[in-house]
Amino acid sequence: MDAGPSDPNLTTRGRPRKKRVRTVTGCLLCRQRRVKCDERRPRCSNCARHPHRVCEYPFDTEGQETDDALVVRSHTPTVGDEPYISVAQIEMLLSHAAAALMEAQRIDADLLQPCSRTALADSLIAKIRRWTDGNVPVPGVWQC
């Protein structure tokens, strides 16, 4: 049984294959999903059916598309749109916020508890008493 021609540019009957034209003008999402894009601006029909998708078109200079092509965004998320943030990013933000909150609460607790003096505070109180011969009262905040 014949396995066909070994040349990938020929069909099984030995005829030249038709070249498929790959579009480079469709939106990036349609190209990524490998679906046909009608290239309607500012949003193609595929992206218009899904309101939270961002329809982007590559910006090519003088007909030459570059690897680092600028992207023209045709849809800017508004207040009503769902945020474009991953679960991992949310978890990271929450952990940073929780750590900052705990640190703020710890500092507030230290300031509100005068009896939990540090060595520095004890040293300052002792110096104040020596310099003033004990004649200046130490504020009540520092006394336990």
Automatic annotation (TrEMBL):
Gene3D superfamilies from the UniProt entry: Zn(2)-C6 fungal-type DNA-binding domain
Alphabetized GO MF terms: DNA binding; DNA-binding transcription factor activity, RNA polymerase II-specific; zinc ion binding
Superkingdom of source: Eukaryota
Pfam families, sorted: Zn_clus
CDD domains reported for this sequence: GAL4
Keywords: DNA-binding, Nucleus, Transcription, Transcription regulation
InterPro entries noted in UniProt: OAF3, Zn2-C6_fun-type_DNA-bd_sf, Zn2Cys6_DnaBD
Domain Zn(2)-C6 fungal-type: 26-57
Matching PANTHER family: ARGININE METABOLISM REGULATION PROTEIN II, OLEATE-ACTIVATED TRANSCRIPTION FACTOR 1-RELATED
This protein's name: Zn(2)-C6 fungal-type domain-containing protein
Organism for this UniProt entry: Cutaneotrichosporon oleaginosum
